[in-house]
Amino acid sequence: MRRRFLHCVGILLSGMLIVTGTVDATAAETVEQSAWPWQLPAGFLLPVVPADNPMTPAKVELGHYLFYEKRLSGNGTMMCASCHVQRLAFTDARRVSRGSTGELTARSSQALVNVAWNASYTWANPSLLSLESQMSVPLFGENPVEMGVNDSNKQQVLQRLQRDARYRRLFRQSFPQDGEPISWRNIIRAIASFERSMVSGRSRYDQYLQGNARLSAAEQRGKQLFFGEKAECFHCHGGFNFSDQTVYVRSRLEEMLFHNTGLYNMGGSGAFPEGNRGVYELTGVAEDMGKFRAPSLRNIAVTAPYMHDGSLKDLPAVLAFYAAGGRNIRYGRYQGDGRLNPFKSELIGNIALSRQEQQDIIAFLHTLTDDSFIRNPALADPFRR
After folding, report:
1. Quick check: helix, strand or coil at residue 95?
2. Rounded to an integer, what is the distance from CA 271 to the centroid of its chain?
């Protein structure tokens, strides 16, 4: 399988990673979004948008309704927002998500924060490079079942929308060139457009960078640790989106990064739990065992529990985990010392933090919460307006 990778190269400047370069046209097409008023926060750069799905107000409005539409699931009981709750930065507070049939997924629901700038989607699939391609997983996936749309009910779900006058109007406005605009392709394009409109960049830390807010002494200490070589946080969580998988117009495509942080080391072999082994599940390459993407840390304080499987319950547990250089599971079926995982990132073993330093970093992470985002009425359930 041919694999495409991306890495943003840049320099650290005033707590921001400024990335330079040009987009590789063979990897992604971009368009200037004259029809969509981005109104980006300070420091944000224009995101990459597929040329065949330009942003428009009509499409974003349609996607907004579809995101909160239970009739879009096979059995009519679940919507995208079931696993992506706004007040939780569009996560769901569960260790792992639950699908429309009650089946549990293997992984924790990721926050939908600034997804327009993501290089890849889902926790560990380097082949899903757009929101449009990713959306087939929750909609049509069978192992596990999430939205529960399948060959036997696909047409029935479309008919639910076709019978609704609002959707007939919104689809016509969004896709005026299509003779039959209510289609799965257009459903996916509309939801992707709405998700790209979810922009978070007005936290107290952002205000601090603009000179409009102050940080406490603990938050200042945490900031210095976060962006310093002692805690190593910024290596995987840098840039304006606090992630190492951030792309935008004129960023450079080089390598896509995934990381083994020493969360497991079953039997001392480096193994992760079956069915949840990171990039290895796709490549079969030993070095990919336990490698997952580093999510954005924006709004991280409201997205517990943490890690790909929700196995760390809160931020103190996360900081203690990194300060220890991995997790040592002493008993049970997952027994093994993750600190000794042979595939663990070399960055993790270099971290040594006192309890006070861990608390200071947590204090800093709380400054990344953007209340205007998690309370924005423009992103709330439109059926309740």
Report:
1. coil
2. 25
Q: What is the pLDDT of residues 165-209, one digit of tens each?
A: 999 999 999 999 999 999 999 999 999 999 999 999 999 999 999
Q: Give the integer Cα–Cα distance in Å for 385 and 375.
A: 14
**369, 297 Cβ separation under 8 angstroms:** no
Which of these ranges, 236-240, 333-337, 348-352, has the smallest mean pLDDT?
A: 348-352
Q: Which CATH architecture has domain 10-200?
A: Orthogonal Bundle (1.10)
Measured between alpha carbons, how far is residue 7 from residues 4, 70, 86, 116, 251 in Å? 11, 37, 29, 16, 9
CA angle 246, 250, 251 (to 5 degrees): 30
Give per-residue pLDDT as tens, 14-45: 333 333 333 333 333 344 445 899 999 999 99
The set of long-range contacts for 286-290, using a CB threshold of 8 Å and a minimum separation of 24, is 286/343, 287/343, 288/258, 288/343, 289/260, 289/343, 290/260, 290/261, 290/263, 290/264, 290/341, 290/343, 290/344
Q: Do domains 10-200 and 204-244+257-372 have the same CATH topology?
A: yes
Longest Cα–Cα distance of the chain, Å, equals 63
Residue 81 has pLDDT above 90, yes or no: yes
CATH H-level superfamily of 204-244+257-372: Cytochrome c-like domain (1.10.760.10)
Torsional class of 101: left (φ above 0), alpha (ψ -120 to 50), beta (otherwise): alpha
Domain ranges of the chain: 10-200, 204-244+257-372
Tokens of 264: 């497991």
Nearest to 194 by CA among 375, 384, 382, 385: 382
* Confidence (pTM): 0.90
Residue 224: which of 128, 363, 18, 38 has the closest Cα? 363
From residue 370, alpha-carbon distances to 205, 282, 376 in Å are 9, 35, 10
Tokens of 123: 């926790």
Q: Phi, psi at residue 169, to the nearest 5°?
A: -70, -45
Find all residues with CB under 8 Å of 9, minimum gap 6, and list them.
19, 20, 21, 252, 254
